[in-house]
Design brief:
Blueprint lengths: L5 H11 L2 H9 L12 H14 L2 H32 L8 H17 L14 H30 L15 H29 L3 E8 L3 E7 L2 H19 L7 H24 L10 H10 L5 H9 L3 H26 L3 H8 L3 E2 H6 L4 H13 L10 H5 L2 E3 L4 E4 L8 H10 L2 H21 L3 E11 L2 E12 L2 E8 L8 H27 L2 H6 L2 H6 L2 E8 L8 E2 L2 E4 L1 H9 L1 E7 L5 E8 L6 H9 L2 H5 L3 E10 L2 E10 L15 E3 L1
Helix pairs in contact: 1-3, 3-4, 4-7, 5-6, 5-7, 6-7, 6-8, 9-10, 9-12, 10-12, 11-18, 12-13, 12-15, 12-17
Length: about 650
């Protein structure tokens, strides 16, 4: 199909088609590789086979997807043409630094309209309203930031000017106006791509398509429970990060120990580059910002360090990646102290990569840092702007880089993990470390470890592996561990992570079903006395991702940190005073002493995250492109007066 050999595609397709292939065509976005005018014939071929292999609501939904595909391709083509037309108004020569300067100017305009009060809870605001508002603000900031990054990349594809730092723009005011228009069009392109990806990767389904005077495509959540869980996980992470509620971590502490020295060195560098610049009176602003960047460091980072055979490599990657951001914060601090003319000059200064790596004393550490800095910076243009979201620093020759935005998106440590793990030997070692980590936590929480890394065999054939067998009273949990190291930036990322979790559920169910059919196998992994006391065998997937905490797939529960704590130590919600961090109220969902088998099984079906989440309803946001309107589902607070349940408390108390 990629070669537009449609007769060849039809012949091959008809000899290999089955239900799984039809679903894979959707998930692999095969049809979206074609232009709108090319897609009719392949759609007809696929529809004919779908009518044979699907039936009922499944067939209706798949046919809705095929109709959606043609309309979405037309929308994307129209927006791409609109973008090309808008970009013609840019100067004929434009350098990469000039493009980035425009992006930063647009972002500064947005930030100038914001105030710290936007992120603070109101006096009479409930926790539910506060969390919902913060989630919405974060979504809008991300949407605008992603649009800016894509605009930079799209313009860079056509940039012909010399890549020189400090280039002055001709018609700067007019160019900025054009850039803003480009950002708006790119935002529309991001919106249709989000809709396409959400339908392709199973976040949304096509509910119906209305064709009156104008076309209306109404979408619905494919898995409403997963949507709620993902929303709860995102909101919880935002609130904890915003108020810096995080457990101590080894990697964070190591980076904190050098933070002040790195930022001080960075400030001196930029002052030396511009001798007439005024020195900041104090560095606390940059240091505070640098500290907030470290709040995202969590257990995953400590375990990666523990799993790595080459500790210097891991330490150097973390140091180099965060140092890029600290240098950016230092440059911004120096810039804000200056008069406007000098401020523009400092804003164009590049970050010296050799200064970051050269500050490390050990030659091997410097070598690893040089490799890390090369990996964590990007040369424009990139194939997909998502690369800029993960790595928002652009190379300026071999020894320098410039930040695209004056804001860290909070993904830097996720990017380090992705870069270092990337499958291979370290990935396997990390998986084993996670098994040991969970075994340690659960053993301390009064779960008995009956087995770890248990291989179930039927004769000489291996049926499946079990990561952990956990016993508490008469309940046996058959556990698969799926630790996710990557980010969840795009719908593709979420789909990929979901597939990993789904496979874990399949494995756990296969194992538990096998043990139910062959109870004598329990004796081989424990003893007769223990095997005899087991009354319940329950499959479970343990994951480090909060975005699946409480999901159920194929009857198998998925437990993240909150649910794991709930079935081990009970569950409560602590409300803290935002001013002094003191606990002002505690709501107990389940106390530790009440953790019977029935209670644990109930918690696996009624996750704490959903119990703590306020009442949400699905509303539709209308997104119109030309004559086509997409009704996109979105979760919003239920209408009317907020229901004050036991766990509600004014939002001056923060949710933990």
């Amino acid at each position: 199909m990629a070669n537009r050999d449609f007769p060849g595609f039809e012949n091959h397709f008809l000899t290999t088609v089955d239900r799984d292939l039809l679903l894979a065509i959707r998930e692999q976005k095969v049809l979206f590789q074609l232009a709108a005018h090319e897609v009719e014939k392949p759609i007809d071929i696929i529809r004919e086979q779908a009518q044979i292999r699907f039936e009922g609501s499944e067939l209706d939904e798949f046919e809705g997807y095929l109709r959606f595909t043609r309309l979405a391709l037309e929308t994307r083509a129209e927006l791409s043409a609109k973008l090309s037309k808008t970009m013609r108004d840019l100067p004929s020569t434009l350098s990469i630094p000039s493009i980035i300067a425009a992006a930063r100017a647009c972002f500064d305009e947005l930030v100038a309209t914001a105030t710290p009060r936007l992120l603070s809870p109101g006096n009479e605001e409930t926790v539910a309203n506060y969390e919902h508002r913060i989630h919405s603000i974060n979504g809008r900031l991300n949407d605008y930031g992603f649009a800016l990054l894509r605009a930079v990349n799209e313009i860079a594809k056509n940039a012909t000017g010399q890549v020189t730092v400090g280039e002055a723009w001709k018609r700067r005011s007019q160019t900025l106006k054009t850039f803003r228009r480009i950002v708006l069009v790119v935002g529309e392109l991001n919106a249709i791509d989000f809709i396409i990806d959400s339908v392709s990767y199973g976040k949304f389904q096509v509910d119906k398509i209305e064709s009156a005077s104008e076309i209306k495509i109404i979408l619905k959540p494919a898995d409403p429970r997963l949507d709620l869980i993902r929303t709860a996980g995102i909101r919880r992470g935002l609130i904890l990060a915003l108020h810096q509620h995080r457990a101590k971590r080894f990697v964070r502490d190591q980076l904190l120990s050098v933070q002040a020295a790195v930022i001080t060195h960075a400030v001196r560098f930029f002052l030396d580059e511009v001798p007439s610049a005024l020195a900041p009176k104090e560095l606390s602003t940059a240091i505070d910002l640098g500290t907030k960047m470290l709040i995202s460091v969590d257990a995953e980072d400590d375990l990666l360090y523990a799993a790595a055979p080459d500790k210097l490599q891991v330490a150097s990657y973390y140091h180099a990646t965060i140092a890029l951001r600290w240098y950016s914060a230092a440059r911004d601090l120096v810039e804000r102290q200056q008069r406007p003319k000098l401020r523009r000059h400092i804003s164009r200064l590049a970050i010296p990569l050799d200064a970051i790596s050269g500050a490390l004393r050990d030659p091997e550490s410097r070598h690893h840092a040089e490799i890390a800095l090369n990996a964590m910076t990007t040369a424009l243009p990139v194939r997909n702007h998502v690369s800029l979201i993960r790595k928002p620093f652009v190379k300026q020759g071999p020894l320098c880089a410039i930040p695209v935005l004056p804001l860290d998106l909070g993904l830097w440590n996720l990017t380090v993990r992705e870069e270092l793990v990337d499958g291979g030997h370290l990935g396997k070692r990390l998986g084993k470390i996670w098994e040991d980590f969970y075994a340690h936590l659960l053993r301390d929480a009064e779960w008995q470890i009956l087995g770890q890394g248990v291989r179930l065999k039927d004769g000489k054939d291996t049926v499946t592996d079990i990561d952990l067998l956990l016993l508490r009273n008469d309940l046996l949990l058959v556990v698969q561990i799926k630790a996710l190291t990557g980010s969840d930036v795009s719908q593709y990322d979420h789909w990929k992570n979901r597939k990993i979790i789904e496979w874990g559920c399949v494995q756990a169910k296969l194992s538990s079903d096998y043990l139910r059919r062959h109870p004598q196998k329990l004796i081989s992994v424990s003893n007769k006395k223990i095997a005899k006391q087991i009354r319940h065998i329950e499959p479970l997937v343990l994951t480090n991702s909060s975005l699946f905490d409480g999901w159920i797939y194929e009857g198998v529960s998925v437990a993240g940190e909150v649910m794991r704590n709930a079935i081990s130590s009970g569950a409560r919600i602590d409300y803290h005073d935002a001013r002094n961090k003191e606990i002002v109220r505690t709501y107990h969902i389940v106390r530790k002493e009440d953790l019977t088998t029935d209670t644990i099984l109930w918690l696996l079906r009624h996750p704490v995250e959903l119990q703590a989440l306020p009442d949400l309803v699905v509303r539709h946001v209308s997104v119109k492109f030309g004559t086509v309107t997409y009704e996109v589902p979105d979760l919003d607070l239920a209408p009317g007066e907020p229901v004050r349940r036991k766990q509600d408390y004014p939002a001056r108390a923060e949710f933990e």
